Amino acid sequence: MSLTDPRRVLEVKRDGGRLGPDELRAFILGYARGEIPDYQASAFLMAAFVNGLDDAETLALTRAMVDSGRTIPLEGVTRPKVDKHSTGGVADGVTLLFAPLAASLGLAVAKLSGRGLGHTGGTLDKLEAIPGFRTDLEPDAFERQVEQIGCAVAAQTADVVPADGALYALRDVTATVPSIPLIAASVMSKKLAVGTDLILLDVKAGSGAFMKTPEDATALAKACAKLATDWGHRTRCAVTDMSQPLGDAIGNALDIQEAVALLRGEMHGRLRDAAVMFAGEALSRLTGVAMGDGRARAARAIDSGDALESFRTMIDAQGGEAAVVDEPEAVLPRAPVITLILAERDGHLTTVDAEALGRASADLGAGRKRKGDPIDPAVGIVFRPKIGDRVESGQPLGSVHARSEEDAETCLIRIAAAITIGEDPVDAPPLVFGWYGD
Predict the structure, then answer these.
(1) How far is the CA of 63 from the CAs of 32, 56, 100, 186, in angstroms?
(2) pLDDT of residue 1
């Protein structure tokens, strides 16, 4: 059989063997070009899922996926360039804060984002809740904006890492998604196709994440860090908590409203802490300032209003209504029914099923069950308390934003089932379990 004969690849992985980089490259590029059918690519994914891929195979797979499409070198950007990516979670609005925050500190954030699917929200969907905001930037316009104002958040185009998009669709229908080498190659191929100086990766662990335990999230973070090291790219991976919603807002317009409040210094909490942490990490790694100083500068950029002005500038540059940073309630779409969530008893919030809250919000219309489904930007959930907080019976815990009273009532029942209020105090979970990479 020739080197490019797909049967050779399938036989080797079926029998637990190791594929050489040329064989893997030929197979992946052949599939991306339509020369290898779905049924053979599905067989490869199942064999890789069952028998695994070693570090060299994972690197070769990643390189092939990057080479399947165009890259974005960002050679015209003179600022230190950083990309920050999250593996997905509930009320995870870090990118909304991080991009303008890092830009206000003199860095360049080139962020290609995705849309929400299932219980996790998508950054593009949130930004598109701002009237007029465009995410379909051409690569040249994307690069010019990053250079001129320091940040841009846009949709990934179909010609960047097309092999990953095709393989991911197969992984979903062949039950091969939960494979650490396949996940790492998928995540890092999209990041390595863009010419940044530093990749920050936020690997979530907990009920609201795809990785349910810190141990699994750590394995993924280490795999991604190893890929970046073997590629010769600087990457820092944090394993962070998703045992509860990170912020308060689980929706799209609601997320924007929360981001504005945080950037205006009107709110604090774990979402702000995470954004400041990642911005401080980026500033330290790219400019050499001490880590503590980097975080302090990031906090000052929020408190001074500099980060808010960067957000305003980015919104305006991408066609959005920049007045959202002044009067978000007047600019953003609002749901017709807003119902309070009331505590049913005295006690301490002990557990939160973050995925259940994410799915309840999605079923209101804030998310998708299938790629391409429409979303309602106005609906969602605001849930304010965090694990360890003391609550009292009848205390408002947040609100449901719905299209109908019936939808709101159904959502309230699901929220009550997703939280536990106990008598005994509990400790708040740590925000970060560990850092990995360069």
Answers:
(1) 13, 11, 31, 11
(2) 39
Q: Residue 296's CB: how many other CB atoms inside 10 A? A: 15
Mean pLDDT of 31-60: 96
Q: Cβ(163)–Cβ(28) under 8 Å?
A: yes
| Residue in the block written with tokens 């973070």 | 221
Q: Which residue type sits at 141?
A: A
Q: Which of 181, 221, 193, 196 is nearest to 87 (CA)?
A: 221
Looking at this protein, which amino acid is placed at residue 214?
Answer: P
Mean pLDDT, residues 265-274 taken together: 96
Regarding pTM above 0.90, the answer is yes
CA 12 from centroid of its chain's CA atoms: 34
What end-to-end distance do the CA atoms of the chain give, in Å? 41
Question: What is the C-alpha to C-alpha distance for residues 148 and 142, in angstroms, rounded to an integer?
Answer: 10
Distance CA 79, CA 145 (A): 12
Distance CA 253, CA 372 (A): 19
Burial (CB < 10 A; 0-12, 13-18, 19+), residue 431, is middle
CA atoms within 13 A on the CB side of 13: 26
- Which residues are known catalytic residues? 85, 164, 171, 186, 190
For the stretch 414-431, pLDDT in tens is 999 999 999 999 999 999
